[in-house]
């Protein structure tokens, strides 16, 4: 058991990132709640970060860590703006169902 934990390869991290990304895509496509969609987008961004960090570790490059940190900062800003929009929509409409939001349709 100890040998299994010490020999985790790059493939394991890439498979985990792929599973996380697929879960995020499924959440975006299946759910209609804006908060769930935002959480699914965050899950996809974290999967992309895990992939970037895995490849950076494979090549011994530190710039991948810098890129992942920038992506995390941008994701935090996206969440702040997105949550503010969702709260404003909820105050005005009393729901956050994206199928029922048709303000910009002609």
Describe this entry's structure for a reader.
This protein is mainly α and 106 residues long. The chain has one domain (2-93): Helix Hairpins. Helices cover 78% and strands 0% of the residues. It is built from 4 helices and no strands. It has helices spanning 2-6, 10-30, 34-59, 63-93. Helix 2 (10-30) runs antiparallel to helix 3. The longest helix has 31 residues, at 63-93. It is elongated. The mean pLDDT is 86.
What's this entry about, in short?
The protein is mostly helical and 106 residues long. Helices cover 78% and strands 0% of the residues. It has helices at 2-6, 10-30, 34-59, 63-93.
Describe the secondary-structure layout.
Elements (H helix, E strand, L loop, with lengths): L1 H5 L3 H21 L3 H26 L3 H31 L13
Task: Tell me the count of domains.
Answer: 1
Model regions low in confidence, pLDDT < 50 over at least 5 residues? none
Q: What portion of residues belong to β-strands? A: under 5%
The appropriate CATH architecture is Orthogonal Bundle
Tell me the radius of gyration.
Answer: 18 Å
The protein's oligomeric status is: single chain
Mean pLDDT: 86
The sequence of SSEs as H and E is HHHH
Secondary structural class = mainly alpha
Instruction: Work out the number of β strands.
Output: 0
CATH structural fold name: Helix Hairpins
Tell me the span between the first and last alpha carbons: 61 Å
Number of helices: 4
CATH class label: Mainly Alpha
């Amino acid at each position: 058991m100890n040998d299994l934990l010490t020999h985790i390869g790059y493939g394991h991290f890439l498979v985990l990132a792929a599973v996380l990304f697929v879960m995020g895509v499924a959440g975006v496509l299946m759910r209609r709640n804006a908060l769930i969609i935002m959480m699914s987008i965050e899950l996809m961004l974290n999967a992309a970060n895990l992939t970037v960090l895995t490849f950076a570790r494979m090549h011994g490059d530190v710039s991948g860590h810098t890129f992942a940190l920038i992506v995390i900062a941008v994701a935090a800003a996206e969440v702040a703006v997105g949550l503010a929009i969702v709260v404003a929509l909820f105050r005005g409409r009393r729901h956050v169902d994206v199928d029922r939001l048709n303000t910009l349709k002609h």
